[in-house]
Amino acid sequence: MEALDLLLIGFAQIADPSRMGFVLLGVVLGLLVGVIPGVGGTTGVAILLPVTVYLEPLSAIVMLAGIYWGAMYGGLITSILFAVPGNPWSVAVMFDGRPLAMQGKAALAMSAGFVVSFVGALIAAILFTFFALPFAELALSFGPPEMFAVLLIAFGTFIGLGGAPAKAAIMIAAGFLLSTVGFDVVTGQPRLTFGTITLMQGFHFVPITIGLFGLGEVLYNASERYKVQIEEMTRAAKLGFQDVLESVKALFRHFWLVVFSSLLGFFTGVLPGAGATPASFMSYGVAQKLSKHPEQFGKGAIEGVMAPEAANNAAGTGSILPMLVLGIPGSPTAAILMAGIFMWGFVPGPRLFVEQPEFVWGFIASLYVANVAAVVICLTATPLLALMLRTPYAILTPIIVVLCIVGAFAIQNSMLDVWLVLIFGVLGFVLRKLAFPLAPLVVALVLGAPTEQALRQSLIMSDGSMLIFFERAISGPLTVAALLLLFLPLLQLLWRRYRGKPDAAAAASSG
């Protein structure tokens, strides 16, 4: 009960009108930042960090926390409406959120995303409050072999659970190849740059994602065959709070999936360097595996929106835990928040809980307040957001293209990113025509560098022996599970052939 008493002290700190105002201001700014492709919560927190030097520490960190949570919610808006992810962790939501929007269910998709975002963040905040130190200690036991096994499971879900394992494997390989361009993650040597300075920075996955899913969909829908259909579906976009009620009903129907995704997201977020993006991809794969209708994923399955949204918001909360307790940031945004704590004269770690309890527990209390504010603001604005889809498609198209290009350029102020959007927009159009899944390529591009780093660090630890992935208590079962997922299509094929031989023999004898 000590944690509950301290949390009440934190709420007393947040109850100050000025601090509550900073929380709400942060949430609104975060929502605005979250809908801008390529910017996201990390950039928003980084831009406003110098401004907080003029505020007292608790007001400063709760405002930054509000920006972060607002961006977590806001990132799904453009992902669902225009297939242009506002944040990296909103990519997985787009796989089914955008098809739902094209079916006239944009308000339902956004409402469901907002509701489960709140539930995921609430579950993670409760775990944060009562199990901070135990979870942080457990995360320290995760070395490179365990991280590699977890990431391998993420790839295995797309090969073992998808409908076209061969195509998924090809797309994963392509994503890995793109992720290797730039500097070697271990030696620092340039590779696949072909002697050009431009390619030394590598390929940022946001412009490629924007090209594949944003511009690619514009080209796909611009064909005469689909244009009339798209205009009819956009005009059919529903408005009203009935969709909010439907999203609540969907929450109860898939309650345990949301709880599981939240737990998975929180635990993944606690792992240093993991963050919300891999959590959203992994939860999407798990949701597809557990679904009674996995064939509906990618075509407008509501679970495909709820699972990654619950996971990425829970991971956003979890990534702050090791930063606050151990001084080890679990994500780039957590690292920026940690820089702010140092700037305000504090040192993250266990002693911070003893020396500055009002600051620590006031910040933890802001996790609850900011998420309540974010879900209320987002649900109130849902009908207005869905109204965007009633805009004629001829007007929406140039707006989407401009968002794609501006969002890509804003990431690094590089024309290379603009060219990547154009190139991968055409490539995305071609791949969709050929029925290749785009999600595995994006997943491999996003997780390629950390996967390679974990693999090579593990092999360095074991002097090149692959047994390190099977000998350790945690990595062993995870690696076996990942390999089963990777080879599941082959095992299913062999099983079908084995079961089919007696039937074939019986058919031959009867003939």
In short:
This protein has 511 residues and is mainly α. The protein is built from 24 helices and 2 strands.
> Major β-sheet, in short?
2 strands, antiparallel
Indicate the overall shape: globular
Report how far the terminal alpha carbons are from each other. 76 Å
How many domains? The number is 1
Biggest sheet, spatial arrangement of strands: 1-2
**Helical segment count:** 24
What percent of residues adopt helix (DSSP H or I)? over 70%
- Order of H and E elements: HHHHHHHHEEHHHHHHHHHHHHHHHH
Give the low-pLDDT segments: 224-239, 502-511
Number of E strands: 2
Share of residues in strands: under 5%
Oligomer: single chain
Q: What integer value in Å does the Rg equal?
A: 23 Å
- The overall average pLDDT, rounded, is 76
Class from secondary-structure proportions: mainly alpha
Structure description:
The protein has helices spanning 2-14, 17-34, 40-48, 57-82, 91-102, 106-140, 144-161, 165-179, 205-222, 224-235, 242-253, 255-270, 276-290, 303-318, 320-326, 332-343, 350-355, 357-386, 393-412, 415-433, 439-461, 468-471, 475-486, 488-510, and strands at 182-183, 190-191. With 511 residues, it is mostly helical. The chain has one domain (2-502). The chain has a two-stranded antiparallel sheet with strand order 1-2. Strand 1 (182-183) and strand 2 form a beta hairpin. The chain is globular. The termini are far apart. Residues 224-239 and 502-511 have low confidence and may be disordered.
